[in-house]
Amino acid sequence: MDNEMTLTFLARSENESLARIAVTSFMAQLDPTVEELSECKTIVSEAVSNAIIHGYANNPNGMITVHATRFGAEISVAIKDEGCGIANIEQAREPLYTTKPELERSGMGFTIMESFADFLQIESTLGEGTIITFTKQISPLQAFVT
């Protein structure tokens, strides 16, 4: 491991941006492309939103932990909550599936995360919480030669 960080915060929607900024700042040392930064920000936003809305049912007193590591040019990020857990992970991964249709949720969170990550793993235990882990290989920007 070349570097590591851990951030823990309350499950409040205003902390979603904190998680995004922390992860992208951590990634900055690898000189990622704008697209790679955007994709990782989106994955973090989706995972944190899922923890807040689904894991904790908008209870702002729950805790979310973001743990990031860097191995060479690969970033690995785990977003963990200690909420209600996911009853059926395969069903939750299906496009357009949502447990909160009354909140106008699109049901595309896991689909979006999977499309942007090189690897995505979902671990969940009912009554104990969920951990979403993703990895992303970073391709450093090349300096312009004139």
From TrEMBL:
InterPro entries according to UniProt: Anti-sigma-factor_SerPK, Anti-sigma_F, HATPase_C_sf, HATPase_dom
SUPFAM superfamilies, A to Z: ATPase domain of HSP90 chaperone/DNA topoisomerase II/histidine kinase
Where does the chain cross the membrane? none
- UniProt superkingdom: Bacteria
Give the Enzyme Commission number.
2.7.11.1
The answer to whether the entry has keyword Oxidoreductase is: no
Q: Which UniProt keywords apply?
A: ATP-binding, Kinase, Nucleotide-binding, Serine/threonine-protein kinase, Sporulation, Transferase
Known catalytic reactions? L-threonyl-[protein] + ATP = O-phospho-L-threonyl-[protein] + ADP + H(+); L-seryl-[protein] + ATP = O-phospho-L-seryl-[protein] + ADP + H(+)
GO molecular-function terms, A-Z? protein serine/threonine kinase activity
Q: Which Pfam families match?
A: HATPase_c_2
Q: Which residues form the Histidine kinase/HSP90-like ATPase domain?
A: 35-140
Q: Which HAMAP family match?
A: Anti_sigma_F (MF_00637)
**Family per record:** Belongs to the anti-sigma-factor family.
Role this protein plays: Binds to sigma F and blocks its ability to form an RNA polymerase holoenzyme (E-sigma F). Phosphorylates SpoIIAA on a serine residue. This phosphorylation may enable SpoIIAA to act as an anti-anti-sigma factor that counteracts SpoIIAB and thus releases sigma F from inhibition.
The identity of this protein, by name, is Anti-sigma F factor
